[in-house]
């Protein structure tokens, strides 16, 4: 009995072992299968990503669907015009029929374009509609100028309607190209109309309203190209009118540029900003206004434009200081340029560049302190002009504007270098090294000029001795500062300057001074050198702190 039970238990154990092995095998198979499937999926997805990342340019699509219709619609229009001209020359078509055919062809282009858009051929359809706008303008030009069928008022009204139609189709099909074409047509209209009786004020008002609408439309729809075109075509129209129609450099152009700027300012303040390019355009608008002011406004009145702009944008930058970094950057940059122009207009900066140096230093400090790259670049203009005008003059008297300019320049460079070291030293190490070298060299040039200016009424011996003593004092100052601050760099700089003083005395001064003054110079310099050596020796012997 017991033996039978044991046999049955052994059979059950063997059967259970088989089932366990079978289950383990299935699980391993399932895991292996799922792992393979997951790996395959990952491989497929990564291959697809690589294919998308390195997908070659579809030249057939780019050339055939994008550029082919754009280019050949103009070829078609030229062919139609030449065909009309051939029939005109043969006398088959009368003048009224020519105008009617032009309008009918334009209408046919619109119908064909809409059909193509409905058939999902958007690019071809938009190009045909754009061509219709051009044909409408050309037909109106022929009816008005060539044949005299339309008076000026009707021709102007029709052309405005064609522009409005272009904007309508642009909005309908969400096409920036149509809007750009319409704006270009708006540029041509004043030159396609025979408007001898129309004054400059009407022309300017038309251009401002036209491109104001296009500019607003571009910003609202985030059309970057239209933004560029509508901004610059206004000023291109004014320049073209001055060249082609001999229009004088009128102050109306300044008012038009200001009107455009006020629209940009309204969008700027209302925070209707589509991209950062719009902020740059706001600054560009002020630069364009400044150009028109220089061309068209009398010299005595120009400063008031700059002062008003400078004060207004200084206030605006204060408003945006802690609220909006981008708007603050543009506002403070315009204010900086406006005050620079006003300073250059009011003062004789060639002899007194101090205001430019002060303004440039403050503007550059703001850019460094707030880490605004655009402001740093803008600040270089007033400061750069200040440097140029300062270097163009040499100090002849101690109490003079030239001496003051050099003094302010040296102090401002110290301040700017310290600001860069404090706010940007981790990024601008090479620049900082260069500025440190400049901060050693320029004060030496300043001291040399001051010493010669102080001794200008004395003989040549005293002048050379004063300048050499000034160099020696300057060198000793570096060494003493290095000892006090425990800076090896400053001590080495002072020693190098002391050797430079000796080279100056030997190479320049000896040939011009008498034996007595040579003795004085060499005695003093020798004593200074030994004294400095003694200070450094004592310092090195009793050094306590670890130096840089």
Describe this structure in words.
There is one protein chain. This protein is mainly alpha-helical and 548 residues long. It contains 19 helices and no strands. Helix 2 packs parallel to helix 4 and helix 5 packs antiparallel against helix 6.
The N- and C-terminal alpha carbons lie at a distance of 99 Å
DSSP, total strands: 0
Q: Uncertain regions: pLDDT < 50 for 5+ in a row? A: 27-36, 41-47, 49-53, 543-548
What is the N-to-C order of secondary-structure elements (H for helix, E for strand)? HHHHHHHHHHHHHHHHHHH
Radius of gyration, in angstroms, nearest whole number = 40 Å
- The coarse overall form would be flat
- Class from helix and strand fractions: mainly alpha
Helix content: over 70%
The chain-level mean pLDDT equals: 77
Distinct helical segment count = 19
Quaternary structure state of the chains depicted = single chain
| β-strand amount | under 5%
The largest pleated sheet is described as: none
């Amino acid at each position: 009995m017991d033996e039978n039970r044991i046999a049955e238990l052994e059979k059950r154990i063997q059967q259970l072992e088989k089932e366990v092995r079978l289950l383990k095998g299935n699980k391993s198979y399932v895991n292996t299968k799922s792992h393979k499937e997951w790996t395959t999926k990952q491989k497929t997805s990564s291959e697809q990503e690589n294919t998308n990342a390195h997908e070659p340019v579809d030249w057939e699509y780019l050339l055939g669907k994008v550029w082919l219709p754009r280019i050949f619609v103009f070829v078609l229009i030229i062919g139609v015009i030449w065909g009309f001209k051939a029939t005109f020359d043969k006398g088959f078509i009368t003048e009224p029929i020519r105008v009617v055919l032009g309008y009918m062809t334009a209408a046919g282009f619109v119908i064909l374009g809409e059909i193509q858009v409905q058939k999902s051929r958007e690019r071809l359809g938009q190009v045909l509609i754009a061509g219709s706008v051009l044909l409408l303008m050309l037909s109106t030009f022929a009816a008005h100028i060539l044949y005299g069928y339309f008076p000026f008022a009707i021709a102007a009204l029709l052309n405005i309607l064609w522009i409005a139609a272009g904007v309508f189709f642009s909005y309908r099909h969400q096409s920036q190209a149509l809007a750009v074409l319409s704006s270009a047509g708006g540029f041509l209209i004043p030159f396609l109309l025979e408007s001898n009786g129309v004054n400059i004020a009407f022309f300017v008002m038309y251009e401002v309203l036209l491109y104001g609408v296009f500019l607003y439309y571009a910003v609202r729809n985030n059309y970057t190209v239209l933004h560029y075109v509508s901004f610059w075509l206004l000023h291109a129209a004014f320049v073209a009118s001055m060249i082609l129609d001999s229009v004088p450099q009128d102050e109306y152009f300044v008012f038009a540029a200001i009107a455009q700027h006020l629209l940009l300012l309204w969008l700027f303040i209302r925070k209707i900003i589509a991209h950062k390019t719009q902020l740059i355009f706001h600054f560009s608008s002020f630069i364009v206004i400044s150009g028109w002011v220089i061309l068209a406004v009398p010299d005595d009145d120009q400063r008031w434009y700059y002062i008003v702009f400078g004060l207004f944008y200084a206030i605006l930058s204060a408003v945006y200081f802690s609220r909006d970094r981008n708007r603050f950057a543009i506002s403070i940059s315009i204010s900086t340029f406006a005050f620079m122009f006003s300073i250059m207009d009011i003062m004789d900066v060639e002899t007194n560049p101090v205001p430019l140096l002060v303004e440039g230093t403050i503007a550059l400090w703001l850019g460094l302190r707030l880490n605004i790259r655009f402001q740093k670049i803008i600040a270089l203009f007033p400061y750069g002009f200040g440097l140029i005008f300062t270097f163009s003059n040499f100090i002849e008297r101690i109490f003079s504007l030239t001496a003051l300019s050099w003094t302010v320049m040296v102090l401002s460079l110290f301040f700017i270098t310290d600001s860069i070291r404090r706010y940007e030293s981790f990024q601008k190490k090479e620049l900082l090294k260069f500025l440190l070298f400049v901060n050693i060299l320029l004060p030496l040039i300043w001291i040399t000029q001051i010493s010669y200016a102080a001794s200008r009424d004395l003989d040549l011996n005293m002048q050379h001795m004063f300048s050499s003593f000034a160099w020696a004092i300057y060198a000793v100052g570096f060494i003493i500062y290095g000892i006090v601050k425990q800076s090896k760099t400053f001590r080495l700089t002072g020693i190098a300057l002391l050797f430079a003083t000796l080279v100056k005395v030997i190479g320049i001064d000896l040939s011009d001074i008498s034996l007595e003054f040579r003795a004085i110079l060499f005695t003093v310099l020798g004593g200074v050198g030994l004294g400095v050596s003694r200070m450094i020796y004592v310092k090195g012997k009793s050094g306590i702190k670890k130096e840089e």
